[in-house]
Amino acid sequence: MADSDPSSNDPRERSSVRKRSQPPRPVSGVIESLSGPTIAGTAIQRSARIEQKVRVGKIILADLPKGDTRARLLQAAILRRDEVLLDGVLTMLTRPQARER
After folding, report:
1. How high is the pLDDT of residue 5?
2. In whole angstroms, how far apart are CA 68 and each of 13, 76, 88?
3. N or C: which end of the chain has fewer CB within 10 A?
4. Number of domains composing the chain
């Protein structure tokens, strides 16, 4: 008996499903890479940088009036230990024209 669909005999019309390949496994796991010396060293350096900026911020904060909006912003940056905000506020406050106000 002949097949009723003539295109099924055409090799161009046939399809096949390839077996799924396994994704390559990383050489070292994520946990191993996070605990490496470079990450730990970077975290320690970052913490030391922030601590230094917090100390400078506290010294400057002591000289500012309590009602000053810059003082409130600096205090929030210190409490949050937000390095980017600390950088911005300290830069603003340590410029010569800012200290004259």
Report:
1. 57
2. 78, 13, 16
3. N
4. 1
pLDDT of residue 58: 95
In a domain, 18, yes or no: no
Task: Summarize pLDDT for 19-63 with one digit per residue, the tens.
Answer: 877 776 655 544 444 455 566 678 889 999 999 999 999 999 999
Residue numbers of the domain that contains 80: 28-100
Distances (CA, A) of 39 to 3, 21, 35, 42: 66, 32, 7, 5
Total residues belonging to the chain:
101
Identify residue 59 by its one-letter amino acid code: I
| Exposed / middle / buried, residue 90 (Cβ in 10 Å: 0-12, 13-18, 19+) | middle
Examine the pLDDT at 78 and tell me if it is beyond 60.
Answer: yes
**Any domain includes 6:** no
Angstrom distance (rounded) from CA 65 to CA 100? 14
**Residue 15 is assigned to a structural domain of this protein:** no
* Nearest CA-CA partner of 71 in 53, 59, 84, 82: 59
